[in-house]
Amino acid sequence: MSLTPPDTGPIEDAWLVIPLYNEATVIADVITAARETFPHVVCVDDASTDGSGVAARAAGAVVVTHPFNLGQGAALQTGISYVLQATDAAYVVTFDADGQHRVEDAAAMVRRAKDEDVAIVFGSRFLDDRTKPGLLRRLILKGAVWITNQQTGLRLSDAHNGLRVIRRDAARAIALEQNRMAHATEIVLQLARTRLPWVEHPVLIIYTDYSRSKGQSLMNSINILIDTIVK
Length: 231
Fold this sequence. Notes:
Blueprint: E1 14-20, H1 27-34, E2 41-45, H2 52-58, E3 62-65, H3 72-86, E4 91-94, H4 103-115, E5 120-124, H5 135-152, E6 164-167, H6 168-171, H7 183-193, E7 198-202, H8 209-214, H9 216-230
Parallel strand pairs: 1-2, 1-4, 2-3, 5-7
Antiparallel strand pairs: 4-6, 5-6
Helix pairs in contact: 5-9
């Protein structure tokens, strides 16, 4: 076994894709922290009204702006398309704007994609017990995961985690049409159809005071379940 520590330097061959809507109070900190490891970040400002795009650009991200609000799925698709068309990046990393994802988890997922030669690494908050989503949220997310697994044929423990590493060949297969939360199932389905190798990786989701104050965590879970059922 090698005792050489994992590479902790900047990851130059991966771009973070961050859908962005009205996160001006936190987005600069999220980007500043992320760029210590991931120098390349593209934020898709989905017609924010609070100056989120300006804050993201000032923090060093490339910002692509939607002229009107299209939803998170559309923002993800715009960001993925930007990376594929404007860069030669080997990996796309989908990452949330609200501070719930950890940069060290994203970096570990990229390293795993390289070390194990897999095309997709899905982050999962349910492979260990570090994340504490609460009973109701856990039940809703588990229900959405069961439905998604039935629809996609995969067997994931956390199909609706927004932290993913997607190799360039797999990213080319993504063509999201679901603009709301149903895109979380749609992206899994499209990646499953590639038949490229995938793994899940344990991650810690941080339910911050900020996200709880906005009601994002529980409402997003409910929206995921509804959109998964009726999409």
